[in-house]
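Example record used in the benchmark description.
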Amino acid sequence: MRLLSRALGRSAATLATAFALASLGATATAAAPTSAASVGPVKLYIQGFGSGPQNVAEQSARASGLDAAVARGFARTECRVSAGPAVVNSLPNGWVQVHIEYLCTGEPNVGSPTFVLNRYHKSSDTLSTPWDAPAGYQLQGPLGSLYTAPTPDTQPLYLCQVRGDHFATTDVGCEGQTYVTRLGWLYNAQPAGVPSLPLLRCLRKENRQIFESHQADCEGQIHGGMLGYVLP
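Model output (C-alpha cells):
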C-alpha cells in the first residue's frame, strides 16, 4: 500500500496537503504479513557526554554513548558515530563538556515481550514510539502496547517521516517516504480471545498533521484508516 505515492514529485508547498488527501483517499489498513527478510531494523540515535580536559572528555563521551547503547540492548558493533565528538560547553580550569551521537542499527535485546507505544507532541509534529522521543517533544500518553518480536497474526509497525511530520505505517518502504525506525509488532486484525485496541491513523483538521489514536472517532479529527490492533 502506497498512500503517499501521489504526493511524490509535487512541490514542497503542496506536499503535505497531497499526502493528507492521499491518506484519506485510501484507508491505512494493515498489509499482508511481511517476511522476515523484509522486516526493517530498529534505528536509534543514542547520546554520549563527557567532561574534563578535551581528550579525556572525548573518551568519556564515547564510552558513555556506547554504554547507553548497550543498556538499550545493542551490541557496540551495531553503533557508529553520526555526530561529534563536539565541545558543547567550556568549564573552569580549561575543562570542557563534549557530546557525541551514535546511530545504532540492528536488533536490540529488549528483554520484555511487550512495551508501551507512547504518543508525543510538539507544536509542529506528533510522533508515536516505544523508544525515547527527541528533545522538545512532550508526552501525551500511551496508545497501547506492541510486541517486541514477531507473534502469530502480527506484523511490524514502523515510524516514518515526511517533511518533518512523523507517521506510523505497516509498510517497510514507508509509503515512499523516509524510514526512521521499527516500532514493534501489532495484530493485523482484531484477535479473538485477546484484549486489544484499534490503532488508527488520523489527521488534524486545521493542518492535516498526522497522528495515531486508539479512539474510533480520531478524537474528533479526520479518520485516515486502520493500522491494526495493539494490546491495551
